[in-house]
Amino acid sequence: MATFLTPLVSIKPTVFSFPSQSVTSPHRQTNVLSLKPFPSPAGAQSSRVRFIPHAVETEEKPASDPNAESSRRVYIGNIPRTVDNEQLSKLVEEHGAAENVQVMYDKYSGRSRRFGFATMKSVEDANAVIDKLNGTTIEGREVKVNITEKPIASSSSPDLSLLQSEDSAFVDSPYKVYVGNLAKTVTKQMLENLFSEKGKVVSAKVSRVPGTSKSSGFGFVTFSTEEDVEAAILALNNSLLEGQKIRVNKA
């Protein structure tokens, strides 16, 4: 019987090579695919996300109201002690409509402090009272009438020229008193009005935080004599001004 020998053929395995970026393992990714955005058409905005800072809105402050109470509140000074609230109201209302009229009294003695305030219904009424009553005479006393305070710019945007002119206008004197614990609403004019009832005031000022219109809570008043200084301290120390007890002593 014939024997046929079949030659052995050596077959070598073919190794297929794949790009590394497409070969992944069931358990881990051997290579991270790099994803690139499609190019934007010409003229189109970039697809990148940009963070825009939050826009801060600034609120416009409304213009000051010309009919605010401070523009309608009238100081009436150097009135006789015999004038009470009712009499002062009648006097004021001869020249304009009033919302409130009040004579200021000493807390301890109960005596009139020779001045009062009238809040008028309009600026026109306030101006009419000033025009008709300022400089008139009541029982031999010349009455002083004026608006209690001038508007001052807010501390965020102070009218520095106004403050500097007030400070430079202050006349110093060896006869001077310190006035402490002032309310924030007290002005130079209010100090002059109050202290002029006790003596001849040379000058007055409210100290302010540098660079702002904010009151520092104290001020100074100068007089022409030592007697006026003593009289002011005796009469006004611990008295009320704009709802606060003030301290008055020699500066």
Automatic annotation (TrEMBL):
Keywords: Chloroplast, Plastid, Repeat, Ribonucleoprotein, Ribosomal protein, RNA-binding, rRNA-binding, Transit peptide. GO terms for cellular component: chloroplast; ribonucleoprotein complex; ribosome. PROSITE patterns: RRM (PS50102). Its main location: plastid. One of its GO terms (molecular function) is rRNA binding. The keyword Transit peptide applies. Residues 72-150, 175-251 form the RRM domain. It is found in: Plastid, Chloroplast. Belongs to the chloroplast-specific ribosomal protein cS22 family. Component of the chloroplast small ribosomal subunit (SSU). Mature 70S chloroplast ribosomes of higher plants consist of a small (30S) and a large (50S) subunit. The 30S small subunit contains 1 molecule of ribosomal RNA (16S rRNA) and 24 different proteins. The 50S large subunit contains 3 rRNA molecules (23S, 5S and 4.5S rRNA) and 33 different proteins. This is Small ribosomal subunit protein cS22.
